[in-house]
Design goal:
Elements lengths: L2 H10 L2 H6 L8 E5 L4 E6 L11 H16 L5 E6 L4 E3 L4 H6 L3 H20 L4 E5 L2 E3 L1 H8 L2 E5 L5 E3 L13 H9 L1 H10 L2 E3 H6 L5 E3 L1 H14 L3 H14 L4 H8 L2 H19 L5 H15 L1 H16 L2 H18 L19 E4 L3 H12 L4 E4 L3 H21 L4 H8 L2 E4 L10 E4 L5 H14 L5 E4 L6 H4 L9 E6 L8 E6 L5 H13 L3 E6 L6 H17 L4 H11 L5 H8 L1 H15 L7 H8 L12 E4 L2 E6 L2 H6 L9 H21 L6 H12 L8 H8 L1 H15 L7 H9 L5
Bound molecules: nicotinamide-adenine-dinucleotide (NAD).
Length: about 750
């Protein structure tokens, strides 16, 4: 069986299906030979929005290159794409997901690597014309070409994002980056998965020309013709060397000699270990490959790359990351309304947005809105508060300009979309208003009353509360059907998540409109049903409570936090309490307890800490010590005195992680059972992106599936027996365990 057959089987999941289906799929590539002897090979998969690497594309590419090599009228080749915003976005992820054995993935990597090596070693020059994204295998393909001409469109980005799927580049792209731009650049691109603009890629010698989009293909053909002359090719290689010239000394010192390289890799491994805490294997595997490249050259490294790629493809981590990728993609297409509501649930056009309250959240929401292109009117009660909000937005834009993600012109144009007011002037024309005033139900009701007098009938009114039920905020509204919750996370410009809350009165169109706006603000949106704490706050509360219970039992602060961070959360729960504010958390817990009873009971510890005037970072008194507003690594030992505990109890780390995470997972299952969540998918994505549930564990629901509902139930019951009714298993967990069911 040849490799193409094997890959087709992997892609289609059935050996027979792949070998016996008769219908020939439509062609992906077409070749046109121009009068000047340039064969333009166009990638255009008619079934997809973007081209991806599939066995079919590989076979057609081979055939096209062989035909061009054999045709004496063809002097040079240009690879281009007919897609609007992409060249080639990498391997087909469904195909990767279908691979069951490491050996199959290894063979695939080797086959693609050999194909690209043939391309790189061909006698006729091949130039890639890149417009739009060239990601993963797409970027690797361009690197294997003799040269790349990129369009200077903002959509043109080049990168190796495989790490985000728990994988690594598998067609020697990392090695080619290292050869051209140095090991350090390869480490950076591979381990972060970040994309380069065409300009940055040019500066690193990873792209050879940048040209305006309308003439870029023509420029690629011209360059291809020029490169038929070996002298021109030599000049190009020199030009690349000059591009990396600035780093030449550093490369000589650090990369080209064994001692320097050892230092470079030691540092990179330490940094990777710090970031991944051993949970994500791909970064360390990439370092293995690059280190081998430094020591033993391209072929030996390529061999190792294929083998390690094979292991990663079948790893649990990669499975979870790929599932998350698909969940995320599905959410992007989800309008947020149910299928049967769709006829009445088309989103309304939103041209203008108003934000009431220019505090931390209001300013954040205004910031992401102007960046999405909406003109925004922001209101606060006085000039000082308004000025603070405007400055917050401006600072965030300045930061982006400083980092080079936007130009100063774009920054100024974007900021010009924002205006401020201390009365309601300019708010009446808004199509969507988000209120983000203090967390006070009467104040919020008052704001809604004011708004209803002003805004047009079609305007959607959203509340950014973190815990108050939207129905309560909307109970005196004349038109409760236009009211939704838009729960953003802090800091708004960094957190990718938005939880949109519908009440039983919310009109599907209002809901769909809010969802569409959230997506334009580049948020991942989940829609949840109204209720105290919605979904994210509701699952966070028992988890934070459990950390406080452990503390009150005498477990040291750093022991609690370390156990949870080692389990995979980005921050420990007690550090998180310091950030959120111990007072705020205590207040939320009281609200939650009123709604859900004993299982959300606020631990006495939180009350004792409040009495001790501990609010966390904001007043410099929390679980950790603060110096001039900065958290130190050291914990504040006086907490133990305030709690009257010794802080010397040392349970096993699993005791801590099991207690805190079961509390969260059990509550997540209740949310699904009660219809707060629409699907396990939303629950998983919400927990990962909203509160940092470890991505490699797949989210609370996926985690139950992996562990098995019976095992989760066994652990929950054991905790219930030992610690009481707050661990009473969710009815859905009991049912899933009894029937041996899975969420996915
Ligand atoms: P904040 O104290 O920073 O800002 C609130 C702002 O509202 C202040 O500037 C205040 O002057 C202004 N304001 C009060 N009454 C007003 C009125 N009548 N008209 C206009 N402005 C008025 O608070 P925040 O952290 O931005 O929180 C705002 C809301 O967002 C709260 O409901 C909070 O629960 C929710 N929230 C906060 C977070 C968070 O992490 N901070 C996360 C999600 C949701």
């Amino acid at each position: 069986m040849d490799i193409a057959q094997m890959l087709s089987m992997a892609a289609e999941g059935s050996p027979r299906g792949a070998l016996t289906t008769a219908a020939r799929p439509p062609a992906i590539l077409r070749t046109e030979v121009r009068d000047d002897g340039v064969a333009v090979v166009t990638l255009d998969d008619p079934r997809e929005t973007h081209n991806t690497i599939t066995p079919q594309l590989g076979a057609e590419l081979d055939a096209a290159l062989e035909a061009a090599a054999a045709d004496p009228t063809v002097k040079a080749i240009v690879l281009t794409s007919a897609k609007k915003s992409s060249f080639l976005v990498g391997a087909n992820i469904e195909m990767i997901q279908g691979i069951k054995f490491a050996q199959d993935a290894e063979d695939m990597s080797r086959a693609v690597g050999e194909r690209f090596a043939r391309l790189a070693g061909g006698r006729k020059p091949v130039v890639a014309h890149v417009h739009g994204s060239a990601l993963g295998g797409g970027f690797e393909l361009s690197l294997a070409c003799s040269a790349t001409v990129a369009s200077d469109d903002p959509a043109t980005v080049l990168g190796l994002p495989e790490v985000k799927l728990g994988l690594m580049p598998a067609a020697n792209g990392l090695l080619r980056v290292a050869a051209r731009a140095g090991l350090r650049v390869a480490i950076d691109l591979g381990l972060t998965g970040r994309s380069l603009t065409a300009k940055k890629a040019l500066a690193l010698g990873l792209v050879d020309e940048i040209v305006a989009p309308p003439v870029a293909l023509e420029a690629a053909c011209r360059l291809a013709r020029r490169l038929c002359d070996p002298k021109a090719y030599a000049a190009l290689v020199q030009q690349r060397a000059r591009a990396s010239g600035k780093r030449r000394v550093e490369r000589a010192l650090l990369e080209k000699n064994p001692v320097g390289r050892a230092v470079l890799f030691r540092r990179a491994r330490a940094e990777a270990a710090k970031q991944t805490r051993g949970h994500y294997p791909a970064p360390a595997r990439m370092l293995d490959v690059l280190e081998r490249y430094g020591k033993r050259g391209f072929r030996a490294a390529a061999e190792l790359e294929a083998r390690l790629f094979g292991d990663l493809v079948v790893s649990e981590t990669s499975h979870r990351m790929v599932e998350l990728f698909f969940a995320h993609t599905a959410l992007k297409k989800d309008p947020g309304v149910e299928h049967e509501e769709a006829p009445h649930g088309a989103p309304r056009a939103v041209e203008r947005i108003a934000v009431i309250g220019a505090g931390l959240m209001g300013a954040g929401i205004a910031g992401v809105s102007i960046q999405a292109g909406f003109p925004v009117r922001m209101k606060d009660t006085d000039d000082v508060a308004l000025g603070r909000g405007l400055k917050y937005v401006r600072d965030a834009l300045d930061e982006r300009a400083r980092r080079g993600s936007i130009t100063t012109l774009e920054r100024d144009r974007t900021f010009a979309h924002l205006s401020g007011t201390t009365d309601y002037s300019g708010v009446a024309s808004a199509d969507l208003v988000v209120e983000a005033v203090f967390e006070d139900v009467d104040l919020k009701k008052g704001v809604i009353r004011d708004l209803e007098r002003l805004v047009k009938d079609t305007c959607v009114i959203a509340s950014n509360t973190s815990s108050l039920p939207i129905a309560r905020i909307a109970e005196e509204a004349t038109h409760p059907e236009r009211i939704v919750g838009m729960h953003y996370f802090s800091p708004v410009h960094r957190m990718p998540m938005l939880e949109i809350v519908r009440t039983k009165h919310t009109d599907p169109r209002a809901l769909a409109t809010a969802v569409a706006v959230g997506k334009r603000q580049r948020k991942t949106v989940i829609v949840v049903r109204d209720g105290t704490g919605f979904y994210t706050t509701r699952i966070l509360a028992p988890y934070l409570n459990e950390a406080a219970h452990l503390l009150a039992e005498g477990v040291p602060i750093e022991v609690v936090d370390r156990a949870i961070v080692d389990w995979g959360f980005p921050t420990g729960p007690l550090q998180l309490l310091d950030e959120v504010g111990i007072d705020v958390a205590a207040h939320v817990t009281t609200v939650m307890q009123a709604a859900f009873g004993v299982r959300m009971r606020a631990p006495e510890a939180l009350a004792a800490l409040r009495m001790d005037d501990r609010k966390g970072r904001k007043n410099g008194r929390g679980f950790y010590l603060y110096e001039r507003g900065r958290r130190s690594r050291r914990v504040d030992d006086t907490v133990y005195g305030a709690l009257r505990v010794t802080g010397r109890s040392r349970p096993m780390p699993e005791e801590i992680s099991v207690r805190a995470t079961i509390a969260m997972i059990n509550e997540a299952l209740r949310c699904l059972d009660e219809g707060v969540l629409r699907s396990p998918r939303d629950g998983d994505v919400g927990a990962i992106l909203g509160i940092g549930f470890p991505a490699f564990r797949g989210g609370p629901f996926r985690y139950v599936d992996v562990l098995g509902a019976q095992e989760v139930l066994r652990r929950t019951r054991a905790l219930e027996q030992r610690l009481g009714p707050r661990f009473e298993p969710a009815p859905l967990l009991v049912e899933m365990a009894r029937k041996g069911k899975r969420f996915y």
